[in-house]
Amino acid sequence: MSVIRTSSLVRDVLLGAAVAAISFSANAQEKHYRFAYDQPNTTGYGVAGDIFANKMKELSKGQFLVDQYPGAQLGQVARDRVAAHACHPRTAATPPA
Q1: In this structure, how many other beta carbons lie within 10 angstroms of the beta carbon of residue 49?
Q2: What number of other Cβ atoms are within 10 A of residue 37's Cβ?
Q3: How far apart are CA 32 and CA 8, in angstroms?
Q4: What is the average per-residue pLDDT within 55-69?
């Protein structure tokens, strides 16, 4: 092989490695999952949620993270929307979508 071919081969290998490293780091983003329950965090649901979240984080090497919502926090928005809909004079007769 000539020097020109060797340097172009090295350049191509380095470029390929750089592209692979960039694509790998783009795929290594954290993914967040929601775990909601209607009990306080101090109950068995909260303890089980903590164990589950820690195990998911450990097994995925920090890529899968579990966000916990105790006390039905995720349902609060829907309840507020229904309550606001019921109080509004123009929409009180029609149920929310």
Answers
A1: 21
A2: 19
A3: 42
A4: 92
Euclidean distance between CA atoms 30 and 65, whole angstroms: 7
Give the length of the chain: 97
Tell which residue, 78, 64, 75, 10, has the closest CA to residue 36: 75
Do residues 64 and 33 lie in contact, with contact meaning Cβ atoms separated by under 8 Å?
A: yes
Q: Which tokens in the block code for residue 77?
A: 């928005």
What are the boundaries of each domain within the chain?
29-87
Q: How far is 36 from 49, CA to CA, in rounded Å? A: 9
Helix (H, G, I), strand (E, B), or coil: what is residue 30?
coil
Task: Name the pTM for this structure.
Answer: 0.48
User: Which residue reads 């929601």 in tokens?
Assistant: 34
